[in-house]
Amino acid sequence: MQIIMKAKYLIVTVALLALACSLASAGDPSPLQDFCVAVKDPASALFVNGKFCKDPKLVSANDFFFSGLNVPRNTSNPLGSNITIVNVDNLAGLNTLGISLARLDFAPYGLNPPHTHPRGTEFLIVLQGTLYAGFVTSNGDGNRLFTKILYPGDVIIFPIGLIHFQWNVGKTNAIAFAGFNSQNEGRIDIANAVFGSDPKINPDVLTKAFQVDKKLVEYLQKQLWFTNS
Ligand SMILES: *[C@@H]1O[C@H](CO)[C@@H](O)[C@H](O)[C@H]1NC(C)=O
Ligand SMILES: *[C@@H]1O[C@H](CO)[C@@H](O)[C@H](O)[C@H]1NC(C)=O
């Protein structure tokens, strides 16, 4: 009797794990209708599928339109880079469609610092300039670093969740575009999250984690961690 019960629990557990894995490996949920233009005011909303959807009768071409990505962005900042993200927050028609994009501007030697996108795999295509780009695999895969020097027309992939970066190693401005398989890929800048969290992580935690002098941790925690996006 007990053995049968245990077997049942095992089957249920395995089934739940399989379900969790299939949910975890999925990207954004598939749309259940042609589109679901995100709307802030629930009074003019119809269906709920992630965000409220605008009444299709009120939807127009502008809900699927964004312009200005041809304009170079201002890179006079501590990182020398400026990321213009086009996702569901500024292109509401992307809601439920599972994609977004970005323009990346780099001053000479400008950096898009190590960061991750918790919800999206990224591809990046260089239009102008020369970028040194790469990502680091997870602990289980040995934290291997993969890098490439990218020239115009070159593409690199950053798998979902992995830490990656791009650095303009050329003497001219660089321009790249990126695509994500999420309407809201999210972004975690490693330095900002670790040393610039609000409130601060107890410095003893970081001192032990990084195996450095506590003064260095406190120094890093005092810095203004700029973000380029
Ligand atoms: C990016 O550039 C735009 C204008 O080109 C500017 O308004 C914005 O503040 C810049 N963002 C950053 C993070 O420097
Ligand atoms: C770019 O941003 C810097 C710093 O905010 C500012 O001083 C400068 O005037 C901006 N340049 C342009 C062309 O807007």
TrEMBL record:
- A Pfam family in this protein? Cupin_1
Superkingdom assignment: Eukaryota
Keywords recorded for this protein, A-Z: Apoplast, Disulfide bond, Glycoprotein, Manganese, Metal-binding, Secreted, Signal
Q: Give the location in the cell.
A: Secreted, Extracellular space, Apoplast
Q: Which cysteines link up through disulfide bonds?
A: C36-C53
Residue intervals of the Cupin type-1 domain: 67-218
Q: Name one GO cellular component term.
A: apoplast
- Signal peptide positions are 1-26
InterPro entries according to UniProt: Cupin_1, Germin, RmlC-like_jellyroll, RmlC_Cupin_sf
Main localisation: secreted
Q: Which residues bind Mn(2+)?
A: H115, H117, E122, H164
Protein residues bound to oxalate: N112, H117, E122
Q: Name one GO molecular function term.
A: manganese ion binding
- What family is reported? Belongs to the germin family.
Q: What does this protein do?
A: May play a role in plant defense. Probably has no oxalate oxidase activity even if the active site is conserved.
| Name of protein | Germin-like protein
Q: Which organism is it from?
A: Juglans regia (English walnut)
**Which lineage is the organism of this entry classified under, starting from the top rank?**
Eukaryota, Viridiplantae, Streptophyta, Embryophyta, Tracheophyta
